[in-house]
What does this fold into?
Amino acid sequence: MKRLILIKYGELTTKKGNRRVFINKLEENIKKLLKNDIKIIKKLDRMYIETLNIDLVSNKLKKIFGIQGIVIAYKVNTNIEKIKEAIVKILENQSFKTFKVDTKRANKNFAIKSMDFNNVIGSLVLKTFPCRVDVHNPEVTIKIEIREETYIYLNQIKGSGGYPVGIQGHGLLMLSGGIDSPVAGYLALKRGIDIDCLYFDSPPHTSLEAKNKVIKLAGILNEYSGNIRLLVVPFTKLQEAIYKNVPSEYNITILRRMMYRIATSIDQNYKVIINGESIGQVASQTLTSINVINSVTSFPIIRPIVCLDKIEIIDIAKKIGTYETSILPFEDCCTIFVPKHPVINPKLEKCLEYENFDYESLIKECIDHIEIITNFNNNYKELL
Ligand code: ATP
Ligand code: MG
It folds into this structure.
């Protein structure tokens, strides 16, 4: 018998007309993210992966969106004796007291109906191992899929769900070093958006460690994508101009309006801007603030965590592996020069009045000098 990985598609199986496009994208992503030696056999309702590194590959598959379930299966000829032999072999390495058999007979040329085959295998297992049947809460479920060939497996590993990354086109994630924006990026990837990341860097007010932290976060997100580019905007001059020209209580509001202006002018091929704003978290995220900030652009902006509590966001950050990096104590450009009393209900007229300096040429300078990073395995640790 042969051991292989069987992949069950998630939500994409509901998209009837587009199914092939989804499956091709998923295959492309698997090839990109799994640099291992693999052979993919693509079917409309599932995918089979043959590899010598089953455990390593199935672990990596857990991070690929568009996969609902990952199963390590045994393939045998569709022949009663071969199936029986395989099942005894598989169960020899298991410790269990209760079990059930679940047969699916897709191949109607196979003479025995599913229910009857459950009984055949059930009796075999009862005869061979000290155990009993429990159809409601078994320790082991023996799944048998009878097709042209037969697949036998015990457990299904949960996949990440979602849609294959890239199926929805490109978006730009505003990525700071905090807890929120990496989570927003993860959720956008999960819906099939291919993301690049944008970081506003203000040296020397923000440190190299802060930048390296963002590089590390982009690298963690890239494990779910394989396609991420990090764009670093040199923001210092513009930020200094804001502090020079704008009354302190409006600093953050205007700073964020500038960030939005830059994010939305970089490349019109991005279909959406994504950020980690969450209603009410800080003064610049009251509904009034968000509206006044957002009014600089008609570009679509999505905020995947807009209605989540901080605790819910932290739970996701821990699950996806960004939390430990996010909580490292390096400052962000939004946290330096924070005014004592940032305005909570900013007025648009005031913003327009305070933006009375030549910010356009500074924005152009920012965009003209963007640094693009695609290698995230930097010397981050050495710098700590
Ligand atoms: P986060 O935890 O993601 O840093 P936050 O709660 O600290 O968010 P803000 O600092 O107000 O909130 O930022 C709101 C959002 O604006 C961030 O989630 C991120 O998407 C974006 N942002 C903030 N600072 C930067 C930065 N330096 N570079 C890129 N994007 C940023
Ligand atoms: Mg922040």
Notes: The chain has 14 helices and 15 strands.
